[in-house]
Amino acid sequence: MADAQRRREEAEARCALLERQMELVERQSAAAPGHPLPPARGYAAGAVDYIGKPFDPWAPRAKVPVFTDLFLERRRSRQPGGA
Questions:
Q1: Complete DSSP assignment for 20-80
Q2: How many domains does the chain have?
Q3: What are the C-alpha distances in Å from 45 to residues 30, 36, 37?
Q4: Residue 33 pLDDT exceeds 70
Q5: Residue 83: inside a domain, yes or no?
Q6: Lowest CB count within 10 Å: 8, 12, 41, 54, which one?
């Protein structure tokens, strides 16, 4: 139980960090002249993530563990007898 709580707290911290990073990316996109803000349109359409071009290879590397943890946590919660 304590391990699950710790992982949940770590995932929440990663999500908060990712949200902060995405706010910075959106601000940078908004500041770019002539940029159509695809992240805002994508999120409005139901997207959960956005990676622009050219992209920093560290961006997806940082995001993969977060989305993997969320996927596994969601899968465990849907299993019979899951927490």
A1: HHHHHHHHHHHHSTT---HHHHHHHTT-S----SS--THHHHHHHHHHHHHHHHHHHHHST
A2: 1
A3: 18, 15, 13
A4: no
A5: no
A6: 54
Within 10 angstroms of residue 23's Cβ, the number of other Cβ atoms is: 10
Structure tokens at 32: 């770019």
Predicted confidence at residue 82, as pLDDT, reads 55
DSSP 8-state class, residue 83 = -
* Amino acid (one-letter) located at 73: E
pTM exceeding 0.90? no
Full domain range(s) for residue 69 = 2-78
Query: What secondary structure letter does DSSP report for 81?
Result: T
Q: Which amino acid is at 12?
A: E
